[in-house]
Amino acid sequence: MKIIHTGDWHIGKLVHGVHMTEDQRHMLKQLVETIEIEKPQVLIIAGDIYDRSIPPVEAVELLDDTLSEIILKHEITVIAIAGNHDSPDRVGFASKILTDRGLHIRGNISREIIPVKVEDEYGTVDFYPVPFAEPAVVRELYGEGEIKTHDDAMKMVLGRIVDKMDGNSRNVCISHAFLMGTEAPETSESERPLSIGGSEYVNVDYYDPFDYVALGHLHRPQKVKNEKIRYSGSLLKYSFSEARQRKSITIVDMDGDGNVEYELRELEPLRDLRIIKGDLNSLMDREIYSLGNTDDYIMASLTDKGELLDPIGRLRSVYPNILRLEREQFDREAGEDRTSAGDEFSRKNPVELFGEFYENLSGEEFDEGKKGIVVDIFDEIGRKGREV
């Protein structure tokens, strides 16, 4: 069976105030073209379909146009789940009606994860769509008071799936989570934390029983533990921390025994997102700027010493889509006095910062009991924010 694994479309995304809809339409057109060529049986969208819980109209129209063409024209099965950026209710709206047309969208997590069954020449492949859910939601769903973290939640959900899994079928899990193996995966600035205060990590070992695991959340395509457990990455670069990444979709071939081979099919952006570095005059030199596409989204890191007159305005005359400007020397000198404190601050999560504030204000210890209450409050705030 041939499967195309994608995730983190983030339709409706703004990067430094710039709408990325046109760029996303360009990338999704390449996805459709790849489907025409490869003729997969299944397309997976592993969460974060939209960038916001209430997406703009043009984002909804773009998704509708894309999925309509994929399903109605190419007649392949599409399986999608909600991620932490999505509103589960909105993503899952009319999902039962759409199932008959080959579109399987799981917004809210359910007590029993019913597999989507797809047949090929070897038999059945069971796809288990596991949408993102806060630990508090899973705790309420199963009535298990001990579920406190994302790891606890996924251990429960996946354990129940594995207990009932058909050993004669090939089994695929679709999940939106932050998996942790022996090595930490590579992250990006544009990935919203899954948890505020509590641990967001999930043990990769829970996914071992599956023949393939299609992951979403992290924006760099990468494996976790082994080649059958993979993040597809995002379709576009959404932060300058991703400037060196090559974006792609993952084409998976599964044989009759559940063994998989994969290929990363690179995507060409309408406008790249890249970093340029040098003094102002050199970056304004035609011989330099003609080496790349000046319409790309640019972060300029200037190495000039001393004051400059309107550097952003001058750069914009050559690079109209410049999004960010840094002064290397000034930023370094200004940061020397605050580096230690700033680094320490940035390493702390909101619950740790609240704990320090509480102890300084009250003189009492911020013990584990108080911490647990605050973690639950922050998680509830995050969940309510996604529902708005």
From TrEMBL:
The keyword Hydrolase applies. GO terms for molecular function: 3'-5' exonuclease activity; endonuclease activity. Keywords: DNA recombination, DNA replication, Endonuclease, Exonuclease, Hydrolase, Nuclease. InterPro entries: Calcineurin-like_PHP, DNA_Repair-Maintenance_Comp, Metallo-depent_PP-like, Mre11_N, SbcD, SbcD_C. SUPFAM superfamilies: Metallo-dependent phosphatases. This is Nuclease SbcCD subunit D. GO terms for biological process: DNA recombination; DNA replication. It comes from the Bacteria. Gene3D superfamilies: 3.60.21.10. The keyword NAD does not apply. Residues 269-360 form the Nuclease SbcCD subunit D C-terminal domain. SbcCD cleaves DNA hairpin structures. These structures can inhibit DNA replication and are intermediates in certain DNA recombination reactions. The complex acts as a 3'->5' double strand exonuclease that can open hairpins. It also has a 5' single-strand endonuclease activity. NCBIfam families: sbcd. Heterodimer of SbcC and SbcD. The lineage of its organism: Bacteria, Bacillati, Bacillota, Tissierellia, Dethiosulfatibacter. Belongs to the SbcD family. Residues 1-221 form the Calcineurin-like phosphoesterase domain.
